[in-house]
Amino acid sequence: MRFPIRFFSISRLLLPVLFLLTLYIFSLVVVDSFYSTENRLEIVSSQNNEPKRVVSPSIPLHHGDSDELPPKYNLMEESYGKKWTKKRDKYLSSANCTVEYANKNKLQQDHPCVIRLIKQKYLRQPSPKNLPYRLGDPQNVDPSDGQAQGILRILRNQVNITITLRAYDGETLSNTLYMERSFQWSGLLIEADQISHSQLVDRNRRAYTSPVCLSTKPYPMEVVFNATVGTLGSILDGVKSAKHTSTDNIYTMQCFPLYSMLVAVGRTRVDYFSLDVEGSEYKILTTIPWHKVDIKTLTVEWNHVPEGEAAMTRLMEKNKYIKFGLLEMKFSHEVVYVQDFLNDLRKFEDY
What we know:
Blueprint (H helix, E strand, L loop, with lengths): L1 H37 L3 E4 L5 E4 L21 H5 L18 H6 L7 H10 L25 H8 L6 E5 L11 H7 L2 E5 L3 H9 L5 E3 L2 E2 L6 E6 L7 E3 L13 E7 L1 H8 L3 E7 L5 H6 L7 E8 L7 H10 L2 E8 L4 E7 L12
Parallel strand pairs: 3-4, 3-10, 4-5, 6-9, 10-11
Antiparallel strand pairs: 1-2, 7-8, 7-9, 11-13, 12-13
Protein name: Methyltransferase FkbM domain-containing protein
Pfam families: Methyltransf_21
Organism: Daphnia galeata
């Protein structure tokens, strides 16, 4: 009788131990399975060098209150990792670095080839300060439609670097000429219209100038540009360059992302960005890697944007900007955005 009793006592001790051991092994299997699927968010280079995302459908990705993936800006580090700069020479081949190659392969915004092309072929240095302006009306100190005065009030006259797209002839309704003449700012003037750009160069502006358009995609591209006066210059959607016959007013045009232009001039910190491209404003704003730039203020024409001003404002708010107000002037229908410099202080949102 004592043997069965002793066996029963031992079994009572072993059963909890076996149960705990089984539970521990099961937990290891579950954890291992979780970590094997948790990091299935990868960046893969496709044949045309355009980054793609491979995401495990079994685990939802949460970014704030949305399940949407964060935007891809087609940057070198997104395809090759953050250490790509140590081997940047291998990404730049003088034999292959052509505009056709950059467009066909949809090279990244900060690809060395793209930056090299802009610097060598599409960027004109500022005119020397000892070279006098050649203005049609030099007595008109501020030819803008109110934008210059408004931005200067917001920035308390502390303006150093600006970007203007489109710059037109460099004088008519210029949002930045007053800042340049009165406050000695430096900047970048982009004008795709061939005639307007020629007039712009003749003004002897103290800023970089470029005869390109801003890309509506996060990579360089060729488009068909309509320079007809009635449309004030715009990109024609749905028209393939290969099938288009150029005329005096409609011709192919090379476009680069804004970030590419900023890297080319070595200025990613900007006080004021004037964006007026007759309808492509929203698409251009989506190409900007906002985590890579520091743009304090913007004025953006909204009345020709197909997506609407509300959608554009939501986009800017998502990128930590505040809608300061609307400018409804004689020639302007623009919304003013100001960088939300208090965003990092809103700690109460974490509670």
